[in-house]
UniProtKB/TrEMBL annotation, chains A, B:
<dbReference type="InterPro" id="IPR015421">
    <property type="entry name" value="PyrdxlP-dep_Trfase_major"/>
</dbReference>
<dbReference type="GO" id="GO:0005737">
    <property type="term" value="C:cytoplasm"/>
</dbReference>
<dbReference type="InterPro" id="IPR022517">
    <property type="entry name" value="Asp_decarboxylase_pyridox"/>
</dbReference>
<dbReference type="InterPro" id="IPR015424">
    <property type="entry name" value="PyrdxlP-dep_Trfase"/>
</dbReference>
<keyword id="KW-0456">Lyase</keyword>
<feature type="modified residue" description="N6-(pyridoxal phosphate)lysine">
    <location>
        <position position="338"/>
    </location>
</feature>
<dbReference type="GO" id="GO:0019752">
    <property type="term" value="P:carboxylic acid metabolic process"/>
</dbReference>
<dbReference type="GO" id="GO:0016831">
    <property type="term" value="F:carboxy-lyase activity"/>
</dbReference>
<keyword id="KW-0663">Pyridoxal phosphate</keyword>
<dbReference type="InterPro" id="IPR015422">
    <property type="entry name" value="PyrdxlP-dep_Trfase_small"/>
</dbReference>
<dbReference type="InterPro" id="IPR002129">
    <property type="entry name" value="PyrdxlP-dep_de-COase"/>
</dbReference>
<comment type="similarity">
    <text>Belongs to the group II decarboxylase family.</text>
</comment>
<dbReference type="Pfam" id="PF00282">
    <property type="entry name" value="Pyridoxal_deC"/>
</dbReference>
<keyword id="KW-0210">Decarboxylase</keyword>
<protein>
    <submittedName>
        <fullName>Putative pyridoxal-dependent aspartate 1-decarboxylase</fullName>
    </submittedName>
</protein>
<dbReference type="GO" id="GO:0030170">
    <property type="term" value="F:pyridoxal phosphate binding"/>
</dbReference>
Length: 544, 544
């Protein structure tokens, strides 16, 4: 059949069928759906091919730029997707894939997501979302209360107020951090006398009006890269983000933070925001938030806490005190798609002051009219899906105590894994878990003994050799497909602050068992032994 | 049972079940899912209550800020969601709801969305998305080719290149427009001599270095509000967005555009970008893109086209020439969740020059390492879901000719509706459809006759009375729940450019029939007759 003939077959009638006729339960799509519903883990296990394929090979199957001129049958296309895409996707929910910030999802999430997609609400305005708007406002209220514990009255007054907002729901932590700093910038450089504010007149005139030489955002050197990105977007420049050194537990050094504030004040550079990290991406540590709040107060700047990862810890009565001081933050980022176990695409930021979002308010003729409760008047994004429903349902079905169990078991598991690593003569624990993250590396016991007495220069050389081995093990393990730890590079104080490559694990998946953790270490020892290049070289260099 | 006791029941074992055990087909959730799968339209029709409820009433059900201390049974919570949320959501896919930019979705979208959620890939990096990364790059390549029609070699060279990107996939048009202007700003204020570029040093130093007094973004008065928001976020200020008047077909007046460029140059204000609109949100008109490209070239500024709505028209060989000149744009925004019939949360921007995204490139230690193909190094967002899969599948299953039929039928339907309105003595067509959007209002024939000879002041007064009637009809129709048109306020040339309230319809839903359109007019006539306040007042004021 010629292409022209096939294309002609795509009549309007055929197309209408696509919009009206559901898949038959015995069709390919129907069968796949049934399999996903009945046994998602089994489906993923069966269809995702464990062993590694080179990206360049995969790219060959996604090579053309021509939009097809012939319609594909749904069933044919589903086979294509299973074969070319699903089979080479990443099993992010596997209990033995502990290198990501993803986890298995509660089973009710899948049908709820389908409901969400079917309803296809647009949360930019009430007209296209109706009850989803108060629902999202309530979710923001709940998360606000989790952080700030204001009184009942506070929520009754502000949660559903048209001209206020307790926060902003968004696609993820990056947009949440950007929104927080946008609000901070616009409030700090607000209208004043003849000056109409940075939102209207821009940064150039704002700095001239206020007489600042520049602005700065201060965060520990473990701060997330989204802060630099935000500073770039907001016109402040990446260099306005100043990295403050950390202590041996990856927490910001408050003395150095304050010294920097003083130095900047002398240079007439205004500190826009101090940013505390509650759960660093690489090591899961939490800054001394209360001390930071004191400094922010003293220097009269915005205090933001990036709790994209650690925010969910507030749901644990046992561990929430780790984040003491977060209630003094002006804004807090929390990712629901991380430790709150909803799928990708659910971040949020809450604001202590319900009026602070007025600084980013905007209106249009056809929506977001003044006085309306449209959510879109206080968000960076415009059209947005009803993801808040998934958070809402999870908060109700799992409930606070259920989340506490999930958070606690993650931390306990991390402590158990840390003890395993500590006890094992061939591994070196690099960072202790404070939340459910830790880092470590494989270092044969005789190498550890050698390094204990070697000088800094020698150790630097040895560390470079260990780095190669670490990379080899991490890569081989990922390629073998049974399990996965990620890798990153962090400074280690005992080696004079030199950066070394480490394995990084995140133990948030409730299905990860102690046995899996033991197997992962065992596999890493085996892989190290197989390294005919890196291990011998390392041993040779550290023989007494 | 006390709260404490219930909470204690949420043991880890119970929680593990939530992560492993699928819903039984006969459970509430299972039944709901089956209903959605087998007959989504029926499900929505059955569960969404048509008649209007006051938002303040709905808010009462979403009032508390306390996160539940007791877990809810999944089935109980599902009943709660059906009762309190779904029943009061908006039937965005209803064929008679023609006021939104939403439509019914192809049936394969629902199971595919479920697959997407189940896979839970994170497209920020290859490590958590693998084959989804080349897939997204291919989708961007296809959309790039749709706009720019470069040669095969071009796509072979750049589509999968680590240091290039043909575009950025994102959550929607607002982020797409923001990304485009961010790229434009960073390229225009790039590193130069001692100056390290706006990305690193910020806007204040950038303008000082380049010696500009300010920057401007020029767009027609029909431009989307996201442009002002972007200007605010980017530190340029909302006032940097300058609205250029339009002609009687809502298209930018190029002579006035060029005059403004000249005036700004004299004031030493650099034009950052001229923005063409391809499908205005309110009227669906398309700017003269080719003429605008000439002006952008002459004034050496970025030329962006916001084709969030109209971009899909390029899929129609019959109508794509309406967008002639778009291939000269430096960047183009297209929303896949609009006329490409995928669900909420799928926008994208393509860039003519695959190197231009280098201006917003960023890296981190643990991901987005230099030379990697991680998509996150060139996007505003960080973690992102695999929505590109839905666009990919739709492009294959519907195919280009299928999309052409969908686009064409929308435009044809709008023309038919326009003719209905034109022929009807009681209606006034305000804007002719160029794409599938049009605006109109209800004006009794004797009022039309009166206005034809009345002076401007009288007509202004009459228009205010008609506005009240328009608002009444639109609101009553929405509240009755059978059908929905939206309303907006636009200038009308024949009344001296005064703004009037109009009904706005978007005819993208392939299931909207001619009968539905006829019924909508009929209902509006009936509603007008019922207006015991506004219609009599109007008639009285226009009696000869």
């Amino acid at each position: 059949m010629t292409a022209g003939k096939r294309a002609a077959e795509a009549s309007l009638e055929t197309l209408h069928r696509i919009f009206t006729i559901p898949e038959a339960p015995d069709s390919t799509l129907g069968r796949i759906e049934k399999e996903i519903s009945e046994n998602l883990a089994g489906f993923l296990g069966n269809h995702i091919v464990a062993t590694e394929q080179a990206l360049t090979d995969i790219e060959k199957d996604f090579a053309g730029a021509v939009i097809p001129e012939q319609p594909a049958f749904v069933s044919d296309h589903m086979h294509h997707l299973l074969d070319k895409l699903v089979s080479r996707s990443v099993h992010t929910s596997s209990p033995s894939f502990i290198g990501h910030m993803t986890s298995a999802l509660p089973y009710f999430i899948l049908p709820l997501s389908k409901l969400m997609v079917g309803l296809n609400q647009n949360l930019v305005k009430i007209e296209t979302s109706k009850a989803f708007t108060p629902l999202e406002r309530q979710v923001l209220g709940m998360m606000h209360r989790l952080v700030y514990s204001e009184h009942e009255d506070f929520y009754q007054n502000w949660m559903h107020s048209a001209n206020h907002s307790l926060g902003a729901f968004c696609s993820g932590g990056t947009v949440a951090n950007l929104t927080a700093l946008w609000v901070a910038r616009n409030n700090m450089l607000k209208a004043d006398g003849d000056f109409k504010g940075v939102a209207r007149e821009g940064l150039f005139k704002a700095l001239k009006h206020y007489g600042y030489e520049g602005m700065a955002i201060l965060v520990s050197e473990r701060g997330h890269y989204s802060l630099k990105k935000s500073a770039d977007v907001l016109g402040l420049g990446q260099e306005s983000v100043i990295a403050i050194p950390t202590d041996d537990r990856n927490r910001i050094d408050c003395q150095k933070l304050e010294e920097k504030c003083q130095a900047l004040a002398k240079d007439n550079i205004k500190v826009l925001s101090i940013v505390g990290v509650a759960g660093t991406t690489e090591t899961g540590n939490i800054d001394p938030l209360s001390d930071m709040a004191d400094i922010a107060e003293k220097y009269q700047c915005h205090f933001h806490v990036d709790a994209a990862w650690g925010g969910a810890t507030l749901l644990s009565n046992k561990y929430r005190s780790l984040l003491d001081g977060i209630e003094r933050a002006d804004s807090v980022t929390i990712d629901a798609h991380k430790q709150m176990y909803v799928p990708m695409g659910a971040g949020l930021v809450v604001f202590k002051n319900p009026s602070s979002v007025a600084a980013i308010e905007h209106h249009a003729e056809y929506i977001l009219r003044k006085g309306s409760k449209d959510l879109g008047s206080h968000t960076l994004e415009g059209s947005r899906p009803g993801m808040a429903m998934l958070v809402y349902a999870s908060l109700h079905i799992i409930s606070r105590p259920g989340y506490e169990l999930l958070i606690n078991q993650g931390i306990d598991k991390a402590k158990y894994f840390a003890s395993l690593i500590d006890q094992h003569s061939e591994f070196e624990l690099v960072t202790q878990p404070e939340l459910c993250l830790l880092t470590y590396r494989y270092v044969p016991s005789q190498v550890q003994a050698f390094m204990a007495t070697a000088d800094v220069d020698t150790n630097q050389h040895i560390n470079r050799l260990i780095d190669k081995l670490t990379k080899f093990i991490q890569k081989s393990q990922r390629e073998a497909g049974k399990s996965f730890v990620s890798r990153t590079r962090i400074e280690v104080q005992k080696y004079g602050g030199v950066k070394v490559l480490v394995f990084r694990v995140v133990l948030a998946n409730p299905l990860t068992t102690n046995e899996i953790l033991e197997d992962i270490l065992e596999e890493q020892v085996e892989l190290a032994q197989k390294s005919i290049q890196y291990l011998p070289e390392l041993i040779e260099n550290t023989s007494f």
